[in-house]
Amino acid sequence: MIRPGFAYSRHRRIRNMDVVTGIVVAGVTTLVIVGGGLVIGFAALFRRRNGRAISAGSPPGSAAFGFGSAPMAELSSTAGSALVRMDDAVRAADHELGFAIAQFGAERSRGFGQSITVARTKVAEAFRLRQLLDDSTADSDRHQREWTLQIIALCEQAGAILAQQDAAFAGLRRLEVGAADAIAHLRRRTAATRERVDTSRVTLARLEASYSPAVVAGITSNVSAAESSLAESEAITDEAAPAVTSAGVSAVSGTLQRASEIAGRAEQLLDAVDRTERDLASAEVALASLRESTRSDLDEAKKQRDTAPDAESGRAIIDAMAAVDEALATGSGPADPVDDLHRIGEAVARLDLAMASARNQADRLAHARAAYAGTLVSAASQIAVVRDLIGARGGGVSARTKLAEAERQYALAQVETDPVEALDTIRRAVTLARDADALARYSA
After folding, report:
1. Among 64, 254, 46, 66, which residue's Cα sits nearest to residue 159?
2. Per 3-state DSSP, what percentage of the chain is helix, strand, and coil (rounded to 5)?
3. For residue range 326-369, what is the model confidence (pLDDT) as tens digits?
4. Which parts of the sequence are annotated with region: Disordered (predicted)?
5. For 42, phi and psi rounded to 5 degrees?
6. Cα 401 from Cα 128, distance rounded (Å)
7. Domain spans of the chain?
């Protein structure tokens, strides 16, 4: 049997996890609507695999039950599939919670929300283990197998938690007499969302006129897609309305849930337009600040260049200064403040390295604090883009793993007290988010 936490004690990189678990897990599964059926029967996924005999060394209920002698490739494939399915299942449960609160009230839905939090934590831990495996930090085949089995176990536990709550709410809905109220709520909800459409259309047009096509590529169809989703939700609701009687909601609850999910999709599509506008505005402010601090860095670099201790150090500073000058001067047509933040940030990181030996500790800390703010904005924006992308198109386990690790590094950076370490950490988050974006687009 796998010992909980066995894998973690060997690695410094997972320090501070206790501090940020609550932050990280909230970001792992957000902004997507998928079918609620993913949860049902999920726990059965691991109980039997093609009639394989039960491993003698693995007691029933453990992660290794039925997998103890499985080839590593099969274990890895099973773990990857389990992660994707459970990530989607927790996302679906998040949306289901909103529907449950609307139908039954916050107090009656409190236990469901708590169960989702527990399941989300287990999925976050599983993604963290998967990242360790991707980084090849397992120091033996045995550790690799144990970590993979632990991923499966965590997914199984999360699935069982969600399945139990799903069954409880299914029973509650069969007894609940509230379809008429649910329909009224849906109609108010879709009407309120329709009132946002024209504003979002104007916002989108303004963004398309102001920024590079690449910046808004992910949201160009959001307004029209939201209108289609609203029309579909309204049609489903109208179709269900005649079937509502005082007998209860069992006959139409599934239909109303589908209408609610589609209405939620429309809301999230419009939310993404608003979020993009806010993120780009923040990126422009951060970019202006970064340009100003970078020019100060260049002034400092000129002094260090002239007093370099040796020719090699002087050449490194000169080359880094040239890269910064190029990054500051490069114009790629329409504005892309997020890409500019990344490009200038990379050049500044190279300059930092070249001047590291010449700077004293106070200088390094001051510079790290100045560079951190812009990099934080860049990381937040890119993480949000990948969340939206996976929410809209799905994504494989590799993209989701990179996203989960980017979110973990983002959270770690915000609680790190050493400015230099915080800057290094948030830069890792940016890199991971960009990798996740590329993987998500490739696998979509």
Report:
1. 46
2. 80, 0, 20
3. 998 876 556 889 889 888 988 998 898 888 766 776 777 888 88
4. 293-314
5. -65, -40
6. 8
7. 8-175, 179-270, 276-443
